Amino acid sequence: MANKLRIGIIGTGGIAHAHAGAYKRFEDVEVVAGADIVPGKARKFLDEFGWAKADAYETHEELCARKDIDAVSVCTYNSTHAVCTVAALNSGKHVLLEKPMAVTIEQGLDILRAEKKSGKIVTIGFQPRYGQNFRRVKEIISSGALGDVYYVQTGGGRRRGIPGGTFIDKDKAGVGALADIGCYALDFALNSIGYPRPLTVSAVAHDHFGKNPKYYPNPDAFSVDDFSAAFIRLEGGITLDFRMTWAMHMDTTGDFIFLGKEGGLKVKQPNLELWGGAWDGTVGDITLYHDVLGYPTSTPIPIVRDEKGDLFGSKVRAFVDAVKTGGPAPIPTSQIIYNQAIIDGIIRSATAGREVDVTFKL
Ligand SMILES: NC(=O)c1ccc[n+]([C@@H]2O[C@H](COP(=O)([O-])OP(=O)(O)OC[C@H]3O[C@@H](n4cnc5c(N)ncnc54)[C@H](O)[C@@H]3O)[C@@H](O)[C@H]2O)c1
Fold it and tell me: Is this prediction's pTM over 0.85?
């Protein structure tokens, strides 16, 4: 096919394989380069996908310097999301950036400024957005069935599920469970109610499991949070009650609940004890609580039990389509900067031991 979209992949570790797998299935794109700071890793990765003609680099700067690349996937660990994304934008490339957007709010704002200056698109890789049940929750709330929503509680968490690799290293991941699976819970909660602006955060964070050899085999390497909880004030008088964990002596930190003036919605997690932060888009039962003729009534909402959709393929395809049609970004930074402000606020508040302001100026 003529005029294929020319793609580069920055960071060729675990998740880059999912991006590459999707790009490989699309006939209108071509992966022409990869970069990873680990010597030889990008070459091996490109060869694995049969892209022998694609060029391998050991810095993101070299890949970004290429004038013939239209768009990149940034699949590095969290601490280098901003530097790679800004470099790609400054060299005129659209970006599909893995979640979380960044580690700090300053890094998130750097991305927004570079995006605005470049006129290119940045979309953030929250694939659960493409799940049918997730969409259904947003549709129910948007329909007005709950009236004005004034309180949201995130649920889920894992009984045992601390990952390894770069996820537990503060220099690389920056943040632990909060940025790994917590950002999905925040996106689900905030997206379902239209992404209101966060105002303040009061939070705690712990590392009781990661630092205990009884529960984690490599406690000396563990330098991030494994649990955090926060009370977040959102614009419009809405409260977000957040909790997320990689490990606990409990099956769940609760259900997702949305309380509105005319109705409530409960979204259960699909499997107690092992929940991926809804990264795979699956949910358990969804129930609408409302009054019928004055009688408090509970109505089960039909859900798709076995989500067969290719959520990863959908997110990469949505990015490609947006680039080809001139936008807008399917999951825009104008929303996700609020997710980032909350993550940043949780870290700051937990460190300071008090509520913090999370409003910002661009
Ligand atoms: N959407 C999802 O379902 C999903 C799943 C897993 C991970 N992720 C996200 O993807 C990101 C990467 O996770 P992973 O599991 O692939 O980690 P990983 O450690 O396996 O891979 C990251 C790679 O980036 C490389 N890298 C870091 N800085 C670089 C730079 N400046 N230039 C070039 N390469 C660089 C590292 O050497 C490493 O190979 C994380 O932000 C994570 O949150 C998303």
Answer: yes
